[in-house]
Amino acid sequence: MAYPNRALILALEATHAKLKTSPLYAWGHLGACNCGHLAQVVTRKSAAEIHRLAVRRAGDWGEVAIDYCPQSGLPVDHVLSEMFDLGLSASDIEHFEDLSDPEVLAELVAPGVYLSRNDKDHVLMYIEGWITVLKRALNQKESALQTETFRKAS
Fold this sequence. Notes:
The chain is mainly alpha-helical. It has helices spanning 6-21, 34-43, 47-54, 61-66, 75-85, 90-98, 102-108, 120-153. It has one domain.
């Protein structure tokens, strides 16, 4: 699971808001798919520019993230670096592209119910669940830190 932090939560909230009102959603388009919309928010690049950068490496975002190499010089790796700097990992990107993170799904659906990775409404639901999971983890982390600080001060 992604490293829970406010910057990532804000990026996901902005992605949700953007995707909710955007007429442009296409799972097969690297700039307008699940991760493409997040990449647009994180990098402030257009869907067309994200697609142009990402298509240089074969595969969907999950495959692109697995092949990530910060020294490659490929522009898509700069996009991925910005996403990783927010606390995401390659597996988070793959899960987001496929709507498949078990922790997020446990927040959203009953056992045996699946989300379709190319359904915009399912993507929006997944982002909402992901935000909930991250906020809960962040609150737990902050509470533990406060408790530890209190113990040290006592």
